[in-house]
Amino acid sequence: MHDEVATDKRRPTVNAGGPIYAVSAGHGTLVTLDPATNKTEEIEIPTRAPRAEVPSRFPRPNRPSLHWGEEHLWANPPYNPADPHNPMMDGQGRVWMTSKIRPNANPDWCRSGSSHKYAEWYPLTNSGRQVSIYDPKTKQFTLIDTCYSTHHLQFDNDANGTLYFNELTGPIFGWIDTRVWDQTKDEQKANGWCGQVVDTNGDGKITRPWNQPAGRGGQAAGNDPALDTMVNYNIYGAIPSPVDDSVWGVSERFPGYLVRVIRGDNPPESCRAEVFRVPEPGFDPRGVDIDTNGVVWTALAASSHMASFDRRKCTGVVGRKTDGSECREGWTLYQTKGPKLKGTDIPADFHYYNWVDQHNALGRGENIPVATGSNSDSLLVLDPRTQQWLTLRVPYPLGFYSRGLDGRIDDPRAGWKGRALYANYGTHFVWHIEGGKGTKGKLVKFQLRPDPLAR
Question: Which of 37, 61, 182, 352 has its CA 20 to 30 A from that of 266?
Answer without folding.
Answer: 182
